[in-house]
Amino acid sequence: MTKSQITNSRVYIAQIPEGVAPNKSHFRTVTTTEDKPELEEGSVFVKNLLFSLDPYIRHEFAEGAKETEVIGFGFSKVLESKNPEFHVGSSYFFGALPWSSYSVLRPQDLTEHFNIDSIDKEIPLSAYSGVLGASGLTVWDSLRRVADLKKGETIYISSAAGTLGQLAGQLAKRKGLRVIGSAGTDEKVAYLKNKLGFDAAFNYKTQDKREALAAAVGPQGLDIYYDLVFDNTVEIALDLFNPHGRVVTVGLLAGHKGEGLALPKNIVHLLLKQIRWEGYTVFEHFDEFETFWKEVTPLVKSGEIKYTETVVDGSAENIVETYLRFLKGAYQGKVSLKLGEF
Ligand SMILES: NC(=O)c1ccc[n+]([C@@H]2O[C@H](COP(=O)([O-])OP(=O)(O)OC[C@H]3O[C@@H](n4cnc5c(N)ncnc54)[C@H](OP(=O)(O)O)[C@@H]3O)[C@@H](O)[C@H]2O)c1
Asked: Enoyl reductase (ER) domain location, by residue (predicted)?
């Protein structure tokens, strides 16, 4: 390999998973030694440093993208630039990136970037792909825009130990709500109760979900279901709701595994209890980042808002195996794969 060459690993979608969770056979990782690319005006050549592992990647498959590169969110550092806004040595790109070791980003790809001088050095950069990134914004904005949190009410959060769930629980607690969460391991359940201050939590894999949720909700009834899963839990929530309850549907974790939602048999409760069921996506609210950071960054910095993250060391060649482990719930909190130092 000469000085003008690089070794690049790229991940492609080999097969579309039909109604099943993604597995190894759905991906293909190709490693090549190649010449450094010639840049066109406005483009930059980056080394990818950290990939945020997010469940929604499943949707790329659903839309049928065989033989295209997998795209995720990540951070990269600028190695060469023909774009006046990106400087070698001080600019970091954060946004949609192909799962590869190196990438060429064209002007239309360069939607977000951080200058190294504008980053709060006391907060790990990885936090900007989780609690202070699009995930955090989603929670903060959906709670204030859709959930209509009221002091004294009870909220239940599914996948509560995940990236969104952890923040949702803590923000709701700060507003004076009674917070119930569920997660898939006893360690995660203990973390919710002992570290994050959830009022109740249960293991949805080892306990009967209906019984456990009904016991946690108790005679006070349920007011908000913060739905990150989109499965039959809505049916249970509808039975437990007080009048004017709200379902805030934000995530599709069951769908990412190819599991569909059956329409709740008791959907008539929407009428009888005057329930509001509303979906939220963050994509039209990125202009709220500044306000969100102003409010939440100090809370993260002071430790008033806690978050756990798992940063797995690896390379572009390990993305697939790390991602598949992540989908099975093997890691705690926000999960990223780190390919290099910042
Ligand atoms: N609407 C938006 O704009 C928006 C923005 C960002 C993310 N999202 C969505 O929000 C959801 C949560 O995102 P996240 O980043 O916080 O994910 P996450 O919770 O970190 O996702 C991984 C965890 O989900 C849990 N899980 C997997 N399948 C499950 C199931 N069938 N039922 C319950 N829990 C399950 C697993 O933990 P356990 O051990 O607990 O099972 C796993 O560790 C995702 O669907 C994501 O795509 C939406």
From this structure: 25-337
Is residue 276 a contact partner of residue 256, using CB atoms and an 8 Å limit? no
Lowest mean pLDDT among 197-206, 311-320, 329-338: 329-338
Average pLDDT value over all residues in the chain: 91
Residue 112 has pLDDT above 90, yes or no: no
Between the CA of 205 and the centroid of ligand 1 the distance, in Å, is 15
Question: Each residue of 144-164: pLDDT tens digit?
Answer: 999 999 999 999 999 999 999
Helix, strand and coil content of the chain, in percent to the nearest 5, comes to 35, 30, 35
Q: 134-283 has which CATH code?
A: 3.40.50.720
Integer Cα distance of 248 and 23 in angstroms:
30
Q: Of 341, 331, 272, 323, nearest to 57 (Cα)?
A: 323
Architecture, CATH, for domain 5-130+308-338: Alpha-Beta Complex (3.90)
Ranges for all domains in the chain classified under CATH 3.40.50.720? 134-283
Could you give the residue range(s) of every CATH 3.90.180.10 domain in the chain?
A: 5-130+308-338
Kindly report, residue by residue over 174-215, the tens digit of the pLDDT.
Answer: 999 999 999 999 999 999 999 999 999 999 999 999 999 999
Burial of 151 (0-12, 13-18, 19+ CB in 10 A): exposed
CB within 6 Å of ligand 1 — which residues? 54-56, 135, 138, 158-159, 161-165, 183-185, 188, 228-229, 231, 250-254, 256-257, 280-282, 329
